[in-house]
Amino acid sequence: MIQxxxxxxxxxxxxxxxxxxxxxxxxxxxxxxxxxxxxxxHSEHGNAxxxxxxxxxxxxxxxxxxxxxxxxxxxxxxxxxxxxxxxxVSRSLGDLEHARECFENALKICPEYADAWNNLGALFEVxxxxxxxxxxxRALELAPSSVDTCNNLALICKKSKRFSDAASWxxxxxxxxxSQPDIWCHLAEVLEETSSLEExxxxxxxxLALRQDDGVSLKLATLLPVVLPSYSAIGPxxxxxxxxxxxxxxxxxxxxxxxxxFRTLFYLAYQGxxxxxxxxxxxxxxxxxxxxxxxxxxxxxxxxxTNERVRVGFISRFFYxxxxxxxxxxxxxxxxxxxxxxxxxxINSGNSDEMTHRFAATADSFAxxxxxxxxxxxxxxxxxxxILLYTDIGMEPYSYFLAFSRLARVQCATWGxxxxxxxxxxDYFISHEDCETEESRTAYSEKLFCLSSAAACAxxxxxxxxxxxxxxxxxxxxxxxxVYYCPQPPFKMHPDFDILLKGILERDPNGLxxxxxxVVPESEMLLRxxxxxxxxxxxxxxxxxxxxxxDDYIRMLELADVILDTPxxxxxxxxxxALAVGAAVVTLPSRYLKGRLTYAWYRRLGIDxxxxxxxxxxxxxxxxxxxxxxxxxxxxxxxxxASHLIxxxxxxxxxxxxxxxxxxxx
Length: 666
Hints:
This protein has four domains: 10-157, Alpha Horseshoe (Serine Threonine Protein Phosphatase 5, Tetratricopeptide repeat); 213-293; 298-461 and 650-664, Rossmann fold, CATH 3.40.50; 472-646, Rossmann fold. It is built from 27 helices and twelve strands.
């Protein structure tokens, strides 16, 4: 929208109309030529200044656009559209405060100008999401048919994990303009958290019908259910996925921006099977489709200097108050600095807290990685690392795709996400003897290094645990019931868990099972639906709690009579924190690392009372602890007394140091 300036001749108006028509037809350069001719004759021609400013802005010539808008606003200070466009230019130049002043000036002149509200909302997206949402909603009141504003609202909701709301805004946008392939794809992405596979597939297919995109094709072909609908569904889900991966491999995909088509088969880990071939196939597909992923840091080919400290790097997006940070801070703080130079790389997610500062304070070098993959890998490569440890490959896109490059002479992964990477440039997977079985050792594309049974699973720093005096009643639980609590989100609950819950509640008529809803409310609905089919008579003794703040999360571990570990994917940090407060965690170790962590922690404590060997044994142990107060209190006391053995383990540290030293010289 350009406000009309009437202080011009009829011929000038006709010439400008031609420029405007050319601009509308996508011929920006021709429009700019006419505007420059007009300005040569009439240097203060408002419409020409405005249109030329827009052309320069869209061409990325922000400083030129800035000068044009400044000149225009001296001539016409009440031109609210110019103020709004000037704000967009200032935002592009990084001057956010001036951008805000420009948008607010536009709205002072014309409070009903929807574009300025929309632009102000886009500015607040990086400053105050609540204000951003208010601005977008005001823009939509003024211009109900604004597709861009609907999409902006959807993005706000997506970032705050309000996926159903995001889906509604994307759907409204598409109802007004169905020819938006990117928005169909974004709709599919949010539906992945809330809807059936058929709805998700339909959205991806709508995107592909408008524009062929190999990245979208990959996302469509690799869909997995968030919450498994039944045990019988696992086989067909895996068969279909493997069939689709084989088809993709032979299609010769070209994916220019793999971050946009990110898929690491995250939910595959919760099916309780050997996932190696899937991860290897996916990594091969990405490497072939996105050839820019393969890159070697310049220092890799240089001769190793043996008299210097070994340069070890740690990389994650989760070095803040998060499970990944808790699992790694103890090792990073205690590695021998006479032998090792430690670099920590935080992939920027906007999260930073006291834990982040703790990483920064202990590292010899600390860097926040920002920008695209190329910029990030250059930052890491500049550290000239001997060893790079990825703490959680598979949980987010940046570390996954960085791992396709050779950024250190030796590259390792570990069990922040306890699944093999399938990536050929990851050399070692760090695990623990008690977490592996003969069968599980074949589940890695990497060479497997295991800490010994004499060590803890990790050099886990002793946690600072809060203490509150809250009672069960505070959480809506009758203190007269026997409370069986599982602190895991719904997507970790394998269908085999249903049998255990049913058995516990059938054997303990006074039992109450307490579960968490998870971050996405829809996952509770999917889990309830499954449980209502497997244990319909017990549903009235099932309580879902909202995700708990850390203080309440710890307090519930203390208050519950029994903590229920999930089969096939056991607790990691959650089990450690439960054992630290003396909680009795009943566990059923499975065949693979992902289902054996709680078992390994118990082996470290020398306590086996809570380790079950089959489903009936799990139910028997849980009910005995839940119903016999004397047994429970004795067990809790023993766990509490021994829990110090988990933390700050010198043997784990020693073995890791020796491993780093050895592989750095190979």
